[in-house]
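Exercise 7 asks you to align residues with tokens for two separate proteins.
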Amino acid sequence: MNKIDFMLIFDVLDANPNGDPDAGNMPRVDVESNQGLVTDVCLKRKIRNFIQLTKKDVPGYDIYIKEKAILTNEQKRAYEALGFDPKKPGEKERDAGRLWMCKNFFDIRTFGAVMSLKEANCGQVRGPVQLSFARSVDSIISAEYAVTRCAVATEKEAQDQKGDNRTMGRKFTVPYAVYSARGTMNPFLAEQTGFSEQDWQTLVEAMVHLFDFDASAARPAGAMAVRKLVLFKHNSQLGNAPAHKLMDAVSITRKADVEVARSFKDYEVTIDQSAIPAGVTVEVIEN
């Protein structure tokens, strides 16, 4: 495999793309520019969830970081499969365990993992695929709404409400915004973890359909969608151009006659082909 850089472009309409639990679940923002942010951890979580749903029974596509997982127990599976005592991890056991975990867990051989636990030590893996925070093209306004619930949780609450079982809450949304995230696939680390061409195609599918099965009260169906995935494919492992120059060739701008954007049609996405050097192929996947 050769080096691949990529840009993920998605939008949000009347939804909360990534609430901050330290700020009452308000959408994350850059406090200086007021641009919206979505963390890399959030994006990876959605990729993991997609793989877990669609590759549930496929060998080699288990997910290490998943809801309610006990990581020591996951690593003990490696020691048990290899016939090692998880309470006596040595260098040999650690290295063999790391290879077993890479082979069986998609997210480990893709994103890496720290598995240096006291029992069933499987060392550390530096993943070949990394993502940046997603950042909105323009500054965002976080809309806040009061919501009511016509029920209470306990008898005491009902007594306190004196028969009126309505309770109040708050809900935050982003009226509309377009976000972009940057990523890369390191072919040298891919060789170390066993990340294959098939894994890459699986990852691309997951990114294209990132929000298809992610609907919730905060993100209703259709409220978030991947619009474009721009791939910069190098014809060498070392790469044929710096990633930042390739990313800078992609321009996402609001149309001049649009004062308040409320649709992806209000933006133009262009790629300066003159900035793409020989040895780099640009592929645009639209959704």
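Second protein for Exercise 7:
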Amino acid sequence: MYKVFSLVLMAAMAVAGNVKQQAAAAEKRPIEPLQPLKVSPNGRYFMTADGKPFFWLADTDWLLFSKLKREEAIKLLDDRQQKGFNVVQVMLLHTAKVVNVYGDTAVRKGNVSKPITTPGDNPDDAAQYDYWDHVDFVVKAAAERGIYVAMVPVWGSVVKEGHVSPAQAKQYAAFLADRYKSQTNVIWMNGGDIKGTDSIAVWKTIGRTLHEKDPGHLITFHPRGRTTSSIWFHNEPWMQFNVFQSGHRRYNQDTSKGDLHFGEDNWKYVAMDYVKKPAKPTFDAEPSYEEIPQGLHDSLEKRWSAADVRRYGYWSVFAGACGYTYGDNAVMQMHRPGDKDHNYGVFNNWYDAIAAPGSGQMQYLKDLMLSRSSYFDRVPDQSLVAGTVGVKYNRILATRGNNYALFYTCNGRNFSVKMDKLTGKTIKASWFSPRDGKYTEIGSFENKGVHEFDAPGDTKEGNDWVLVLDF
């Protein structure tokens, strides 16, 4: 009996071992080589080279190139791949004299037109491995994991402080175009937390040079908080899609003069870009970061939570955005113990912060948007909401495709839908949870009149739901 039991146990262990080996092998299977992204024919969305829908889901990793070692970069990229991110947003030059974790300087004496490169790229030989070799390593490692790299050539403050002339910008952009035009997972994100009117000649030079010498890669402009790139560059030939930075201020903190006073209503930036001609994709490339103080500068303020970053995501996407960028306070600055250049009251380390709950919940937004057919035909449609659509946290955002409609409530309040505005005789309804990506079936309804829907749970902050109507 014991012998038989032992044989059975050994067989079971062998099967379990094979399952583990197969799972490990599956994880190591090479991802299909990435090709440069394109804009869909209707100008609203991104698509792959073979015409498949691409929903931009980015992680904000601004200091990845300068602060992480190779093995740390792999740790971060593996985690983000697992969580469904398909883009990382990264700075090439955070300062004019940036030095990476290996002690390599990017450019000579702060002159961006003079990148420091060395012959060879052997990581075990310091004389052959330079700042740009490390960038190359990270970009290729991202490609191997199905991740695009949206690279900011030089951060806005560097230019605003007078360290970059148009002539230097042209030489530097030409260097970047030549070095990365054959790397298929690169996207150019000109600017960097700055208004287009600050040194506009430099930004136009960078954009124009990159576009002329590297026409195969998409280009945009990352603007200052509470502004959108379309304000200055929508009609520039190199500007292929718009992004906005909704900023990190709550409603009563948005008091600055001269900016768009939208407060937390980031969907208003989408609405602003959506009506511009020609149509171009747009999305929130910097909403409020998880775990960062509201308003940024007072570490005693309440911190933005997972519920907040979900709200920003669903609000903007349902308003017509082609994707969304998530950010975490510690991760965006790659904070670690002993850092002297920490900002915004950061209290934890990047390798712990990658587990922040919001980062794991963003994939459900991407999965939802890609789960329905006619992806490229989706439009925002507030007319589907019966009665008031609500303001601030009571706002209901609605979007629809050819055979579905989606409605987002950030607090689970009741709302009504004009069913007869939808096609088909019968509507199948369900609730989708942005917190875990699970569906709860409601039932089927005759397609007529107005129907009120009551989201599960009480009306309260963080009890967000998506009403899904299929027809």
